[in-house]
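Structural prep section.
Before we set up the soaks we want a predicted structure of the protein with phenylalanine in place, mainly to decide which crystallisation condition to try first. Input record follows.
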Amino acid sequence: MKSEGFRQPFIAQGLYMTSPDLAQTIQEVRDKALEELQGLASEEELESWRILYLGRRGRLTSVLRSLGSLSQEERRVVGAQANQVKALLEESLAQAEGQVKESRIAGLAQEEQIDVTRPGRSVALGRFHPLTQILREICDAFVAMGFQIVEGPEVEWDHYNFELLNIPRDHPARDMWNTLWIDYRDEKGEQPMLLRTHTSPMQARTMERMKPPVRVIVPGKCYRYEATDATHEWHFYQVEGLAVDDGITFADLKGTLYEFARRIFGADRRVRFRCDYFPFVEPGVDMSIDCFACKGQGCRICQETGWIEILGAGMVHPKVLEGVGYDPSVYTGFAFGLGPERIAMLKYGIEDIRLFYSNDLRFLRQF
Ligand code: PHE
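Run finished without errors. Recording the tokens verbatim:
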């Protein structure tokens, strides 16, 4: 209790007092009490005040106790007066308590008031890596044309990465893919293991597992034993596409890839197909779009040619179909492979492929 300083018995000699003395003491106690009450602002202070004046050993209580020393007549008069004062003090206390409580609530309301016009705290928003964004965009374009997405292993057998794709052992065509070999072979010791150099092994894996019609796209990571520079990385993404069915023609290939180019690079894009060689397609092509930066006039992005090469494609080679047990006299199909890094670099004017993998926030925050 904080009231210790006030605790000394106020009128210890009250027992010897006379009636006029007592009456006056009561007045004094009343005036003092009311005066002190004025300045009190907290519930603790009010409690100390109550103990000091109205408590069991309080000032007024002591006066009331000393009434016993008066005559009966005096006791009646002074007692009535003392009881009035007691009631007055109690009532004043209740009033003061009410006020303190009210102002405390008002203070709380003030503190907790919400200013709905204040601007909110901004939350740091994450975002997808630019490559994830472009991969989704590319996949969305093909999904809209009826392709389904499949994924495959990044660690692959020679069998799928090369042999089933019409690239036999020791064939010079293997030089097109600088391969990272893994020091491991299958149980018979025949199959070397490698990091897939392209997503094309999923052509064979998909056809082994499905009957035609097949329409899949395969986004995924690939690896090559290559020196890095502004346009080469030793790890990168590809998106493979494969459509096989009864009666698929080169016109389907052209139509599908043309639509894809328009969706990604704009509705007024034109495309160009040129002969190219990949062992697992026949005929094989590469596809270019007219340069969206200079509209075909010739600029830095298209290296003054007006055309930008964006993917390799072709009709699935009969040997590949045979290899997975499809009858090439019944089924035909087309396949393509594109590099999302290159697509993103063209689309966003990124000049160095290594930026995608350098984890530099200054670069990543731009997307
Ligand atoms: N897999 C080939 C590459 O990595 C691209 C390709 C895919 C070409 C499918 C034709 C058909 O270069």
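Observations: The pocket of phenylalanine is lined by residues 198, 200, 278, 281, 312-314, 335-337 (CB under 6 Å).
Flagged for discussion at group meeting.
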